[in-house]
Design goal:
4-stranded parallel β-sheet; 12% strand; 14 helices; Rossmann fold; 249 residues; alpha/beta
């Protein structure tokens, strides 16, 4: 199975360990992973800000670079949601675009839905809080939002629950936004910080020692707030936890 690894800008520049953890997880599961060196930003920051003329060439470039591969996997729900749900404005009708949408996955949903992972030989003896980021939850369907009726599920939570000695703690408001929202955190700084602080306090009250998510952008925001307030909370992407757990087992 050939997988092209798409690494978001902020992971490439600030959290390369998350990209390496994703690579190691996929390789251990038999994937032939390639990293197209010509890849650029997916264009989400420009699109969210209304700068569509700047986002369009990045979408076109993404299609050109990743169309040849069997699968595209990224450790980021928001970037994958950009490709699957927001590229239509730029690429509708282009050859290969529908195929690109169908084969682009966030890491956790790729592990659950494509590789059909049902067990994980890993140990992680910590109390872990899972932040369900908005894009993954409501655009990719990686879990059940609280506003919908139905069976409760979470693909990231399903993977974490496979680890030995882990204790998943649940906040009172499990799918509330962290307040990051890209440029929202810049334009509405005070509101963004209050939302993020509320998220952190909710997880701390539930007993979390480690806070994780499938989006490093959300965790970047929460890590900044947690660090400034000196909260006793580790912040780790789910790829880091899954990869570390295997190393310990």
């Amino acid at each position: 199975m050939q997988v092209a690894l798409f690494i978001p800008c902020y992971i490439d520049q600030l959290y390369p360990r998350v990209g390496m953890a994703t690579l190691e997880i996929l390789e251990r599961r038999g994937c032939d992973v390639v990293f197209p060196a010509a890849q650029t930003c997916c264009g989400q920051p420009m699109s969210n800000t209304g700068c569509n003329s700047d986002a369009r060439p990045l979408a076109e470039r993404f299609l050109e670079i990743f169309a040849p591969y069997q699968y595209v996997v990224a450790p980021s729900g928001s970037c994958v949601a950009m490709v699957r749900h927001h590229y239509d404005e730029f690429l509708a009708g282009r050859p290969g675009f529908e195929e690109l949408k169908a084969k682009t996955f966030e890491l956790c949903e790729f592990l659950v839905d494509v590789l059909k992972v049902e067990s994980w030989d890993g140990v992680y003896p910590h109390k872990v809080g899972l932040h369900s980021s908005c894009h993954g939850l409501r655009e990719l369907g990686m879990g059940k939002p609280s506003e919908l009726v139905g069976v409760d599920f979470s693909k990231p939570g399903q993977l974490l629950a496979m680890l030995d000695q882990i204790e998943l703690v649940k906040p009172q408001r499990p799918d509330e936004c962290c307040g990051f929202g890209g440029t929202f955190a810049v334009n509405e700084e005070a509101v963004s910080c209050m939302m993020g602080t509320d998220r952190l306090q909710d997880h701390l009250s539930a007993g979390a020692e480690v806070l994780t998510a499938a989006d490093m952008s959300c965790l970047m925001h929460l890590q900044g707030l947690s660090g400034r307030k000196k909260m006793p909370l580790q912040i780790k992407h789910i790829a880091e936890i899954l990869n570390e757990s295997e190393a310990k087992s």
